[in-house]
Write a structure and sequence with these properties.
The complex is a heterodimer.
Chain A (H helix, E strand, L loop, with lengths): L5 H13 L7 H17 L4 H11 L2 H18 L2 H5 L9 H6 L1 H29 L40 E3 L20 H6 L1 E3 L36 E2 L11 H12 L4 H5 L4 E9 L5 E8 L5 H11 L6 E3 L2 E13 L3
Parallel strand pairs in A: 1-2, 3-7
Antiparallel strand pairs in A: 4-5, 4-7, 6-7
Chain B lengths: L1 H24 L3 E2 H11 L8 H13 L3 E8 L2 E8 L1 H31 L1
Antiparallel strand pairs in B: 1-3, 2-3
Helix pairs in contact in B: 1-3, 1-4
Classes of the chains: A alpha/beta, B alpha+beta.
């Protein structure tokens, strides 16, 4: 077997390249033609003869056809994108986008259709799954029991223990009167001055405590006509809840009602929200009748509480409450009704 | 040469089957070997040109019928072809098909020959 020399092979190679054979095909065709040439050399021909014979079979047209066939074959496996992007930068991103376009479209169409159908069918589906309540259906039963309403029981102040008055020691000292002789009480002698130092003069002689300094309220008859009753100062600090005489709006409850009617404005928020009810206000009526410390204890909100507080603060002075005849500070609770007409 | 040209017309349709069948008989072959094998076994009646052979080989390769391996021989790269499993199956089917076709053609041609 004769072997082709390297330069001969190169000669073949240059011939094939000159005929623009696809480089991918080159090694295979080169090998084929080399084998053919070797065969011819084996038959006793010179290389030139063999080369000419090969050029005759592998003419330009045949080689071109081969290249074109190969190109077509490759193109069959390629998509349009591969052809468009041949020799261009595929990493840039557009290639990947175009290649995935079909899949993306498919997915988006499926998703879109699913969502749309879901949106259209959801109400229907919901209505099917959740049956509509019929008017005769009873959802649940609420049992009403009688509500027990009790008035607030105000703590009764513990009764003041009346201590028995200590008995004074008295010595019988009767104002001497002029009587007829036969009526004179002989046994009686007027008390001695020493005796009267530790005891008081009385109708009877009585044993009692010696050193107690008791001041008895002067009886009405005993007060001298021109004496001025000492003004009793009102107690300031202590705040009463229950007193003998409750504080009162000057003019009575009816006047207070009129005052409230005149000044109360129904708050607009409450009107919007359709709110009505009672606002319980607590405030102190001072000993001088002034109203202080107004606050709402239990309100209904929506501006009603603030409105009630505002109006109560506007009130003129009250008649103060009295404890044992002395004006005192009293904590007072006033419900104010908000009611729409 | 004229005889070759006529036979090429029929070869074109059966070339794929011929190549698959030859590869089924051998472990692996390269292009020139196939042409030589065909030439020898048919006594030169069928001559495969490389211009017809290689496109068929490449097509079969792309279809997954053939595997290739390149081996360096005498300073040149030689590309060997061998059948894959689907290629083997295809070789059997195609050979059967071709045989049935040849039988059918023979039946068609027989009466005319008899008449002559």
């Amino acid at each position: 077997m004769k072997r082709l020399q390297k330069n001969r092979i190169e000669q073949l190679s240059t011939y094939l390249l000159a005929n623009k054979l696809n480089p991918e095909l080159l090694p295979e065709i080169l090998d084929h033609l080399a084998c053919e040439a070797e065969e011819r050399l084996w038959d006793g021909k010179s290389f030139e003869q063999a080369f000419n014979g090969i050029v005759e079979t592998a003419d330009t047209q045949t080689l071109l056809n081969l290249s074109v066939d190969h190109k077509h074959l490759l193109a069959m496996g390629k998509s349009l994108d591969d052809i468009v992007f041949e020799g261009r930068n595929k990493l840039y991103g557009a290639y990947a986008l175009r290649k995935g376009y079909g899949q993306t479209m498919q997915r988006s169409v499926l998703l879109g259709v699913t969502l749309f159908l879901g949106m259209v069918l959801l109400p229907n589906l919901y209505a099917r799954l959740v049956p509509e309540a019929k008017p005769e259906d009873i959802a649940y039963v609420v049992e009403f029991t009688d509500a027990e309403i009790r008035p607030d029981v105000k703590p009764v102040p513990p009764p003041v223990k009346e201590e028995p008055r200590p008995v004074e020691k008295t010595i019988r000292s009767v104002i001497p009167t002029v009587v007829p002789d036969e009526n004179v009480d002989v046994e009686y002698t007027p008390p001695l001055t020493e005796e009267l130092e530790t005891a008081k003069a009385g109708q009877e002689t009585q044993d009692g405590l010696v050193d107690v300094d008791i001041i008895t309220a002067p009886s009405a008859g005993n007060i001298p006509g021109n004496s001025i009753a000492a003004e009793v100062l009102p107690e300031k600090v202590k705040e009463y809840i229950a007193v003998d005489q409750k504080p009162e709006y000057a003019g009575g409850n009816a006047a207070m009602g009129a005052f409230l009617q005149k000044h109360l404005r129904y708050p607009s928020e409450a009107i919007k929200a359709n709110i009505q009810g009672r606002v319980f206000l607590e405030f102190t009526v001072g000993a001088d009748g002034k109203i202080e410390n107004v606050k709402s204890v239990k309100g209904i909100g929506f501006g009603c509480d603030e409105e009630a507080i505002r109006v109560v603060k506007l009130m003129p002075e009250w008649k103060p409450g009295k404890q044992a005849g002395v004006p005192v500070r009293v904590r007072f609770t006033l419900p104010i009704m908000f009611q729409m007409n | 040469m004229e005889n070759n040209a006529t036979s090429n017309e029929y070869v074109r349709g059966t070339l794929k089957t011929i190549v698959l069948n030859l590869l089924a008989e051998h472990d692996r072959m390269y292009g020139y070997e196939i042409t030589q094998e065909v030439k020898e076994r048919t006594g030169g009646a069928i001559a495969l040109t490389f211009g017809a052979l290689y496109p068929v080989l490449h097509k079969l390769e792309q279809e997954g019928m053939l595997l290739t391996e390149s081996v360096e021989v005498d300073g040149r790269l030689r590309k060997y072809y061998s059948l894959t499993t689907p290629g083997n199956e295809a070789a059997r089917n195609k050979t059967n098909d071709l045989e049935r076709f040849i039988d059918a053609v023979r039946l068609l041609l027989a009466p005319r020959l008899a008449a002559e």
